[in-house]
Design a protein that fits this description.
Chain B: This is Nucleotidyltransferase family protein. Chain A is an alpha+beta fold and about 290 residues long. Chain A is built from 9 helices and 17 strands. Chain B contains 16 helices and 7 strands. Classes of the chains: A alpha+beta (about 290), B mainly alpha (about 375).
Amino acid sequence: MQPAETLGINIGYFKVHLETHSDEVLRWVKTLYSEFPRTDLQQDFHDFHIRISPPTQLRRFIRPQIQFYFNEHAPFVPLPRSQAVPMFEWGLNWCIANHAHQYLLFHAAGLAKNDTFVLLPAPPGSGKSTLTAALMLNGWQLYSDELVMIDLKHNQVHGLSRPINLKNNSIDLITNTFSNSVMSSKFHDTAKGTVALLKPTGYSVQNVLTKRPVTHILFPKFERDSHLQSKTLSKTDAFMDLIANSFNYLVLGNAGFQCATQLVDSAECLTMKYSNFSDAFRFFDKLAS
Amino acid sequence: MTTSLLIQILRNPAGVTELNGIAWSQLINESRTANLLGKLFWILKQNKLEKFIPQYALNHLESEFKQHQLQKNQSVWELSKVFNISQKIDVPILVLKGAAYFYSDQNAGEGRTLSDIDLLVEKKNLKAMEAALFANGWISKEVDDYDEKYYREWSHEIPPLIHYKSGTVIDLHHNIFPVLRHLNPPVEPLFEHALQTEKCGTLHPHDMIIHSATHLFWEGEFDNGLRDLVDIQQLLQSHVVDQENGWQELATRACALNLGQPLFYALRYCKAILYLPVPKACFKLLRQENKSAMRIPAGYGLLIMDWLFLHVLKPAHSHCASSGDALARQLLYWRGHLIKMPGKVLLPHLLKKTIKSLRKQEEKKLPDLN
């Protein structure tokens, strides 16, 4: 085992203190987060102290494993060592979703162009990450692929332009369609199948501190061979579907209710069915014009 | 011994005005490990220090406090259901520990989190209460025959009950300490002394302190040791420190319940660790009045206990780790078992437990072979 190395990364609204023994984690984190500034390890406050290391049990000699430690405690079971890089991403999502209640947090993607901000809440499997990746590589600013943070004071979105987690067929689809994409290697046999991480565009990272109000709430659904269809969604349905995708709506109580109602009231709420990128791009660019 | 920054701030909350970024990281991390993050926020607010908390730290303190408030509301709501059930079958019931602090709005409950709701009934009412809870959706977690027997015959509680819908866990006790060693106090005086409001019963504040001390200093597990000590400190501040004869009444009560020894430790470490001013006369009285089989150590004996307890009553974080921590933890774990069970019961019990855990590991391995 190589000695541990420590990195401090400022991802905009959080500072992450990462210590790891895994050279694979170091290499990919340095690549995927290269546009983010480093923190001062001797001076700065860090929000999340994360360590990615082999678990302490003796069985690491039998089958190499990797463990995620948050503040020296392991909240998950260990994974095979080959999944160390996605484990860092998932673990960091977990840290934010459980400890950042200054925000109303949604399991959603968020993208912006001109004065338009589209919030895309959607359950896994709706093609959200693939669409997000494609839009980002087509000039939209990535706010988040997994976790949209709405600040409770001003009802604005705070950016979290971290790498996009792509799964299975989407990986090759994005790599082959967009020559400007920077992708990590593939990590096989994870709980989500094969995954790879797409580096956020420089534009997204450089503008991570630009806060925005939500102008559109859009529930996308990928459906093979379908024509692009979009319908207006009633405010009540949008509200219920939106809070169903929140991580901490219950924790926030009244503040969460106020924030969610205001979001729905001030945004246009839509559903969208699509089957190909070019239709989707046209549709989104119309929203932003 | 390396000092914990959290303990320094608990002694002197105004110390936060001096902290830089990296020190705030350390304070937040230690507090999270010790399950005292919400409590720390409440203490800083009480001391009007909120404006000295930088935004980056405030985010974490407020986040934790919001989770605490949700849990408090949920627990109090669950308790109101439990009290309705107990009233219907006319069984007096008392809430213990964290849930009691929530229910009776104690300072000790502010910012605190808990994992289950602890309830106390008299043994003669245990069956009726268990059946009534069962009828209302609290079902027993699956335990094997041996654990079932262990709980029912040797312990002071029945296996945990979990609500099928809300997931709330209730620990139903018929005593405040395992019954095997006969060190446990009779339960009737606790009920006689209890505070009954319209629906709810909690222990008398003195008994709350004594119970919390017994739990902390006799059970042998210290994952939440510092948090429990802070509970005791806050109960003392609310109900004893400024009361005329407060210390004397508390000490006399503990000795009458044969629980003078754990109270002695609780006061000793509230003083040593949290700098709570406990009068010398109170320690003296405890020594005089303690007639229990559990003697209060003096001289070298007390030095050894200090070494042990000072190693474990701190956050289990590498910032404040020192050599001897693991040994102290292990020795106190064994001590806890020895207090709970006489040797002739303890040895077969541990043997049985070891065999069971080995067998479980074996079972877990099996799928890997296919």
